[in-house]
Amino acid sequence: MKKRLLILLLGLLAVGAGVFYYNRLHHSDRLTFTGFVEGEEKVIKSEIAGRVETVTFTDGSRMQTGDVLAEVDARDYRSQVAQQELNLHLLKAKIQQAENQLALARDTYPAQLRAAKANLAKAAADLDLAEREFARSTELLQAEYLSQQRFDQAKNQLDVARAALTREREALAAAEANLRQIQLAEDALEVQKRQLAVETERLAQMRIILDKYTIRSPCDCTVQTRLIRAGEYVNPGTGIASLLDPLDKYVRVYVPVPELGKVHVGDKVSIEPDALPGEFIPGEISFIEDIAQFTPKNIEVKSDRITQVFATKVRILDQLERIKPGMEGTVYLDGAHMN
């Protein structure tokens, strides 16, 4: 029984070794590059100035989108926002009062104008009658058919009628002036409404700035480095943290100039991490630099550093959770073979 188990284990090892060496031979004649896994770091920076009150993370913390990273003292600015809110409230009250007064004027002033015109017409008719009565009384007095007392009464009525006409003319002028005030009030109300729009937008902008005093994670990320501590003073542009998206990783390789014609954006590749020998993870060429550079020191031996190469990014298409930044590996270009 033990002998059979031993034979079975040896057989499995042989199959595994066969698969391993087959993959090795299968990939050995293809164009290969040495690469390093890198991640796109997002450096989160402050957009405002102030003293940091709280920091909620440390190196290695996992953050979800919207999680608070840090809070900057916002007491002074929050007071400004509150003052702006009060100013806006008072302005809205003034506009409401002006609208009520305007509505009342629209109902009242036209009626006053109509009444003033009617009163003026009556006063003019009364004056006309008084003038004719006074002229008749004058003739009768001269002919000694009218007493002095009756003549004085006619003259007094004429004076009263003239004063009434003057008074009604002034009332009509006042009613017309009031009617013109409606247009002025409408213009003033329009100015206040435009001011309200400006102040409302100003408050919205202030609230946006106030939100920036609370610094949040823009993605589901891991904190690579904490760049600030509670109590420190920040300015716009001060770094808060560097974040790494666990799914935003790629392999950087360097393609020598002689091989550049064989490599194109969109080409499929197989990635064999050094930490996972014999495992091949699919990838794709996503970017090739336009300008050549000398081979970086951490890629080739000293004798090869004079070689000109093009930095190239390989997007990892699968098993991203198994690939860690800093890992080395070999990238095999599918379909391209060595000369």
Account of the protein in words:
The chain is an alpha+beta fold and 339 residues long. It has 2 domains: 28-73 and 221-337, Beta Barrel (Elongation Factor Tu (Ef-tu), domain 3); 76-211, Orthogonal Bundle (Helix Hairpins), CATH 1.10.287. Helices cover 47% and strands 27% of the residues. It has a 6-stranded antiparallel β-barrel. A hairpin with a 7-residue loop joins strand 9 and strand 10. The longest helix is centred in the N-terminal third of the chain and has 68 residues, at 75-142. The radius of gyration is 47 Å and the shape is rod-shaped.
How would you sum up this structure in a few lines?
This protein is 47% helix and 27% strand. It is an alpha+beta fold.
Rg is 47 Å
For the record, give the distance between the C-alpha atoms at the N and C termini, rounded to a whole number.
52 Å
Flag low-confidence runs. Answer: 13-28
Bin the helical content: 40-55%
Give the oligomer, counting copies of the same chain as homo and different chains as hetero: single chain
Task: Give the helix/strand class.
Answer: alpha+beta
CATH topology label of the largest domain = Elongation Factor Tu (Ef-tu), domain 3
Determine the number of helices (DSSP H or I, runs of at least 4 residues): 3
- Principal-axes shape call: rod-shaped
Features:
339 residues, alpha+beta, Elongation Factor Tu (Ef-tu), domain 3, Helix Hairpins, 2 domains, six-stranded antiparallel β-barrel, 47% helix, 27% strand, rod-shaped
